[in-house]
Amino acid sequence: MTLTANGHPLDTSPDRFGELEPANDLLDDPAGLRAAMDERGHLFFRGLLPAETVLEARREVLLKYAVLGEVDDRFPIEDAIAGDRLGVDTANVRAFSESVRNGYWYRSVTDHPDLLAVHAALLDGPVRSFDFRWPRFARPGEGCGFHCDGPYMNRGTPMERIFSSWIPLGHVAREDGALIVLEGSHRSDQLDGYLDADADRDGLQWLDDDPVVVQERYGDRWLTIDFEPGDVLCFGMSTLHGALDNQSPTGRCRLSSDTRYQRVDEPADPRWNGERIEGHGGRRVFYPGLGRWNNDDFQDEWKDVDERGRMIIRETP
To answer: What DSSP character marks residue 227?
Structure first.
């Protein structure tokens, strides 16, 4: 199968594409973890989290998506086969999103002590996850444009002191839409102006949707792997990343999670923290997919809703 991102094929020759290398041997070496993050811009861990906990979170989240028809309940729920979505138009997706993001098992994954310990080692002190968490449900045919997290998380602690963790909630093979990171991109001078931007103030879209173009401008090889339950990929705010297209041959949806971590004693970005989370403002709900807008006005991931929480989909260009 030819791997694609946003419909564009990747160059998978050995000098342009490679596999993530586990960093589990550094888990008991905080200084080594920090040095490796500085050098690589990312750290991949095999089996950092208990697989049983991750699979409980998977089932918890998928049961909620099944209520909306996003998952076809004629098959085992855990298979995440795409459904007809008949319940989406009439559902209160604001309440739905809050329910998914605050589920017991889901939070048991994002705030697991072993995951917090990695971030505490990277930041040399006690840490917390952001109050907002980003569970992502990618239907067949969907992917994600290329970007760095820094411009979206920079109204509190400096971005050099925030890290992201991408967690597959279940098995995520490459053809199911695995995350990809661009080797060496955290050192690219070409990203300096972009990393200084504020995504909301400056109206950022994806950097690009073509993996070959992005690779030529900003880094070296694209890196990924076939992910298993319990795996975690940590990376910094200046590491360029995106996702492969979900080309599941069985119509399987990809389920994953993004969370951000910072020290507990440093200021937090008000967009994503506090009793009243701003997000990207207005009547919007985090509900990724359902069209491609190049993330214009954040529409690839954030949907407008009415006063009853019903989704308003803008026309795809």
So the answer is: B
Residue 139 has pLDDT above 80, yes or no: yes
CATH class of 12-312: mainly beta
First CA to last CA across the chain, in angstroms? 28
Determine which helix (DSSP H) or strand (DSSP E) holds 118, and give its type and residue range: helix 113-123
Mean pLDDT of the chain: 96
Q: How far is 178 from 196, CA to CA, in rounded Å?
A: 28
Measured between alpha carbons, how far is residue 287 from residues 98, 121, 281 in Å?
A: 11, 32, 14
Query: Token pair for residue 259?
Result: 């969370």
C-alpha closest to that of 207 among 123, 151, 272, 138: 151
Does the CA dihedral 61-238-41-294 come out positive or negative? positive
Domain ranges of the chain: 12-312
